[in-house]
Amino acid sequence: MPTHEGDRVTTLELFFDLAFVFAFTQLSRLMAEHHDLIGVVQAMTILALLWWTWNSYGWLANLAHADRGWVGAVMLAAMGSVVVVGVTAMHAYRALEDDLFAPFVFLGAYLAARIIHAVSFAAVSTPELRRQAFTTSALAIIPSGALLVAGAFLGGGWQVGLWAAAAAVEPVVTQRMSASADWRVGSTAHFTERHGLIVILAIGESIIAIGTGVASVPMSGGILAGIALALTIAAALWWAYFRQLAEEAEQALIARAAPERAHTARDGYTYLHLAIVASIVVTALGVEESLARIASHEPLGWLAASALAVGLAGYLGSTAWFSRMVASRARPFRAFLGAGVAATAPLLATLTAVPALGTAAGLLVAGLIAEALVGRRGARTRSTTSG
Fold first, then answer.
1. Is 209:168 a contact under the CB 8 Å cutoff?
2. I want to staple 125 with a disulfide (CB 3.0 to 4.6 A). Which of 48, 133, 321, 377 is the partner?
3. What's the structural domain count of the chain?
């Protein structure tokens, strides 16, 4: 059954998203275990592959109700594939001689989810769009799948490079193929809520990181302080998106004409939200690594400090860009705040865990409060002028 404007996210879609929450936690583990830039690149590549998968089913459920008829069975089958992707993510980059099976199980599950979607999406598309929808899926899946298989066989640096290239294929193909197509957003409310929920689930992964970081550390006052600061960071991430952007962006998207709405939805949500979610995942790594060192008197180190600073900076920058792209509202203060937070990475690396978390949390909260106050003052000025 097709969706209509005003339809909202179903509980089946929330259930479906749990598989991605699990996969996100695995990616944090992958980065933490590698403890270097290669591990971050590997994890971000898998995150991009997961993102295109999640987004493809988001568009499917935006055109046809996810909990009605055969679409529900498709969502459950894809969920099973994504769970397998998450289970094998930690071993997806193993060298061929170490573990032949895991990379190909990972690829089989990933490609199964993508092929199921391609067939399903073509089936629910209008006759005018069916051919183009299937062509777009084929042009994205076939070359990226070939790169993924080649990378799994070659292993090592070749695998890292080829898999990163595979993750870049889909956004390029989708952008080119959808530029002239008559795509539509079935329900704007559903589409914006769907992306908001994946953001909140990603923030939830940062909450999981708190427990992971302190699980093997004896309880102390420092632990409690670190937990409080980590929760403050998570709450600030929530505030920055849901109290300051989400509703405004939804109303702006609804106000656009149908063709422009579809293109804005693609650029602002399908593409830009990957940067938002990736920033949250990197921030969660910084929080987890910081809390794991909470009992140590040693400096935080470059990995935790860089993850914390770059993750928060990326989140601030990408949400500012999202506001400008979708709601046509520039947020220069937030962009400058992001640049300032990124610049603190060398300082955070020299601090112990609690002061580092306190510095990051303090800058983030103070900056967002200042942005809100400036925004309210500007709104009052505009109201007075117009009156």
1. no
2. 133
3. 2
Distance between CA atoms of residues 157 and 93, nearest Å = 10
CB distance 293 to 304 below 8 Å: yes
Joined tokens for residue 281: 């995942």
User: Are residues 263 and 119 located together in one domain of the fold?
Assistant: no
Say how many C-beta atoms besides its own lie within 10 A of residue 59's C-beta: 21
Would the pLDDT of 373 be above 70?
A: yes
Angle at 193 between CA 180 and CA 276, to 5 degrees: 75
Name residue, tokens 């459950």: 76
28 and 124 in a single domain? The answer is yes
Mean pLDDT score, 298-326:
93
The span from the CA of 58 to the CA of 9, in Å, is 10
Angle at 206 between CA 288 and CA 249, to 5 degrees: 145
H/E segment holding residue 79? helix 70-88
Residues 28, 170 within the same domain = yes
C-alpha closest to that of 269 among 219, 197, 166: 197
Both tokens of 253, joined, read 């998207």
Q: How far is CA 223 from the centre of its chain?
A: 28
- Mention every residue, 6+ apart, whose C-beta is less than 8 A from residue 34: 40, 42
Q: How far apart are CA 273 and CA 283, in angstroms?
A: 15
Q: Which residue, of 127, 162, 183, is where some domain finishes?
A: 183
Looking at residue 198, which CATH number applies to its domain?
Answer: 1.20.1410
Domain holding 173, by residue range, is 7-183
Based on the fold, state whether residues 212 and 337 are members of the same structural domain.
Answer: yes
